[in-house]
From TrEMBL:
Record-level GO cellular component terms: Golgi apparatus; Golgi membrane
Name assigned to this protein: Uncharacterized protein
Ranges annotated as spanning the membrane: 21-41
Source organism per UniProt: Brachypodium distachyon (Purple false brome)
PANTHER family: OS11G0490100 PROTEIN
Amino acid sequence: MKSMGSRDKLQAAAAASGHRRVLLLVFASCFAFATLFTFLYTSDHFTSGSSPSGVSRYSSASSSISGAGAGGALPLPVFDALVHYASFSNATHRMTDTDIRAISAILRARGPCNLLVFGLGAESPLWLALNHGGRTVYLDENEFYVKYLEPRHPGLEAYDVSYTTKVRDFRDLLAAAQKSRAAECRPVQNLLFSECRLAINDLPNELYDVAWDVVLVDGPSGWNPSSPGRMPSIFTTAVLARSGAKGRPTDVLVHDFNFEVEQVLSKEFLCDENRVQGSGTPSLGHFLIRAGGPKDSFCSGQDSAAAASSGEKTRK
């Protein structure tokens, strides 16, 4: 066999070099395309999903909610699927299946709506999702829990509240509110300037002007005598529902309704005549509150004499 000449060797080397250049060019082109695609996708994702620095919590949440509102309410199959899987959740300290479904039924009937929730818990992301297209605001006693949950659930709008009440004082607080029902603790008033001990008057100002369609009272904590108890949240809800200038009523849902504080305060400020029978559960009270009404009484039959009598009974 003849050995390869110098010219043949040069031609073979040139061919091999050209082949490598073609492969290198193809590889470089593919890499450049992939890099450009990734850059464009990432830029679009962060532009639409992140708010610019310096935007307040409320502005960011409002933008997110406004974007959701453009799509309207959740399709019913999606709504039902979320409720179904939430009902089978094994999260600790969660609501019962019947309570979750009862609250979800109200949100389906009223949503998308303005939803105010006292208390953050295992179901908080569910209420936010079910009220897709509406505005959902949470109020909680734990400032650190608020800061913990907000970045983990985009669009969640939450504020911390400082409560000064104690469960052990609830009968004295109730008696004082009954005595000043025509004055500081009247049912129709501007809570921002209220001097009633049960009024929450340190929320962001604009929250007092919102026409709340649904209010869920699931906080603050009330498990021991030193806990804040839900006296302020129930009273404040009753005033918000009656003082709002709107043509539609407010659905008020009181969780843990099987406990004394929730039952007594609901009877006093939300009233038995406003109770919606058959729509709650033993641990969930459902009330329908309409705006307006008498200026010195929350429920029918409440007057100065009845208030004094009731105050004496609560102290026995």
